[in-house]
Prior knowledge:
The complex is a heterodimer.
Chain A: H1 2-28, E1 37-38, H2 40-47, E2 56-59, E3 70-71, H3 78-89, E4 97-100, H4 112-121, E5 127-130, H5 136-139
Parallel strand pairs in A: 1-5, 2-3, 2-4, 4-5
Helix pairs in contact in A: 3-4
Chain B: H1 2-11, E1 32-34, E2 40-42, E3 50-56, H2 61-77, E4 81-82, E5 85-86, E6 88-94, H3 99-108, E7 114-116, H4 125-129, E8 137-141, E9 147-150, H5 155-162
Parallel strand pairs in B: 3-6, 6-7
Antiparallel strand pairs in B: 1-2, 3-8, 4-5, 8-9
Amino acid sequence: MKTKVLIFLFFTIAASVFASYVFSSQGQNDPWTPQQLLAPADLAKVLNNPKTPQPIVFCIGMDAVIKGSINVGPAMKAENLNTLKQQLNKLAKNSQIVVYCGCCPFSRCPNIRPAMKLLQDMQFTNYKLLDLPQNVKVDWIDKGYPMSE
Amino acid sequence: MLVALLLLGCLNPYLYAQSAGLGIGNKPPEIKLPTTKGDTLALSSLKGKLVLIDFWATWCSPCVEEQAELAKLYRKYKQSVFTIGKGFEIYGVSLDAKKSNWEDFIVANKINWIQVSDLKFWRSPVAKTYNIQELPFNILIDGNGIILAKNIHGIDLEKGIARYLHKQ
């Protein structure tokens, strides 16, 4: 009986250690750091105040919902990623850049990772990912932040 | 006695049936959107049938995966007689932004149920009216347009449909 309890405990602990490893490793593989996430409220504040230096905002998803953003299309497609690369080639490496998609939760979004990887590979030094953990409706539109026409 | 009746009334959801809203027993807002051919098709035109309103998009991977399941349900229940409607229909509302993506997917996957979209992505007024927080999202309504269930998927969706089959 005692052996059975010990075996049960061993497998329970092993399973939880494995689960926590898998869970944490998903985040570790993302090509951004927590410091590179930009809060929507912070971007909205900047966009609402034209006197402050404006970042270059790229939509790397389906639709450039955010005011003033440049639509390059879903970055999961090679041709759109290439369009982004061409746009980035025109910019200084220390340009203030923000990218966003907002189709779906980060875990499912197919566009943010290729775009952030490209910025990393091109050695930009001042780029952020707009923190839209659920989607652009919930985290931007519903909050009444500035939108494109 | 009057107070008791009023209290009972407050607790009885059936007294709210057919009032506008998004709760079970409510009548959801009308949707009138264009099909791929451009003609407008109203949700209310499906009155009399058991209807699944399926909010989806080609850019939503779980939605895309679910379309094969919907095809099976559509084939199985399209002609069925239910206790709350005759026939089963799917009213697919796409939140796509690009018409070619939407149309190509419909053709490639031989989707033969109703498809409508205003191609406004998350800006679609329907997404706001229906308070959609995430895709996929669906609503099952009866022949009178009353909400029977919300956001049911997989086996729960089939059970949700099958439970209303008219027993011979």
